[in-house]
Amino acid sequence: MEIDFSTYNILIVEDSELNLFVLKEILEREHFNVFSASGAKGAFENLRRQRIDLILMDVMMGETNGFDLTQELKSLQEYKHIPVLFITNLKSPDDVVRGFDSGGVDYIPKPFNKKELLQRIKHQIKLIESSNTIAKQTAQLQEAILNRDRMYAILAHDLRSPISSLKMILNILTMSPEGSNTGYGDMINTGNDIAEQLFSVLDNLLKWTKNSLGILSYMPQEIEFDEMIKGVVETLQPTAKLKNIEIQLTLQSGLQIYFDADIMKSMLRNLLINAVKFSHEDSLIKLNLYSDEDDVVVEIIDTGVGMSVDAQRQLQEQIMEEGKITPMREKGKGLGLWVVYHFIQKNGGTFFFESEENVGSSFGFRVPLLNTTSNQKKLHIIN
């Protein structure tokens, strides 16, 4: 690694004019920029005036002790990163240990050997250069990730509107008697299912990228939860119909929450789409809504393929890690559930799931009730 030593500033803190002259002569011949001070006051003046990359610190300087001065420098945030090499004729193990304890990274014994001196200094400069290179590459990588997320957000946003319009048209056709009488009813239902899944993927991607970029707007409002659930289920009925799946709702009425409506719809849609996707044909999905103390509980239970213990562990690791890239690492696997988990946790709720292979799964969450005293505890089943 070729290093331009002329870009590095070294501060020598030394009260011996002879030692200072020799050190400056050696370092300036290697093209280092050299600054000097005879004690603590001069050292701080130099540190305030220019960037210092490395300090050569004498230990015994009259009233100034190099160990104590180094400890003081390391206690200050702006100087703690600067490596300090001690120049000392103290060679006992206790003195060496004290030097390292005070924050030094190495020491040069007096009288110093020129080759050893330069070798130790250049080694520290190489470490600084490597650290700077890593920091620069990290910044470039972070910028690349940021640009990628911006691209995802723009792409998802631009595609979300036309897909949403297409989904609305197909929803109308699936619910229209004219649409089913054309002989293309199954094709319309299939098209509606594809549009619904595309919309869900784009919606999840948009929320994930906006959250990563810190630009996701959150606008909570009072929500009649059972009415919202009915609306979301109605839009997904064509998808369930393709597999002849019945979605049974057991909803406690009068439950209100304070949540962003768009985000809550996304969470419900994600859980229902997953339940339909992994359910067998001609099966039943149960969606339960009820209050439990100060919370509202949503459970979506299917009798589908279920998951093995190992698959459940992997899914839990996938969606519950805080790293923003994690949900995308396996072709988007778990992104929808990550959206559910992330926003439930962010708003004081709890996400849960349990599953048994070849038996089925139950996914759900708890969120705080808006008003625990005014809720009417009425249950009704909708087939």
Automatic annotation (TrEMBL):
The UniProt record lists the Histidine kinase domain at: 154-371
Which first-to-last residue range defines the signal peptide? none
**Gene3D superfamilies assigned:** 1.10.287.130, 3.40.50.2300, Histidine kinase-like ATPase, C-terminal domain
This protein's source sits in the domain of life called Bacteria
Q: State the PROSITE patterns in the record.
A: HIS_KIN, RESPONSE_REGULATORY
The protein's UniProt keywords, in alphabetical order, are: Phosphoprotein
Return the broad EC class.
Answer: transferase
Q: Does the keyword Translocase apply?
A: no
Catalysed reaction, written as an equation: ATP + protein L-histidine = ADP + protein N-phospho-L-histidine
Q: Which GO terms describe its molecular function?
A: phosphorelay sensor kinase activity
- Which E.C. number(s) belong to this protein? 2.7.13.3
Q: Where would I find the Response regulatory domain in this sequence? A: 9-125
Give the protein name, as stated in the record: histidine kinase
Organism whose genome encodes this protein: Sphingobacterium siyangense
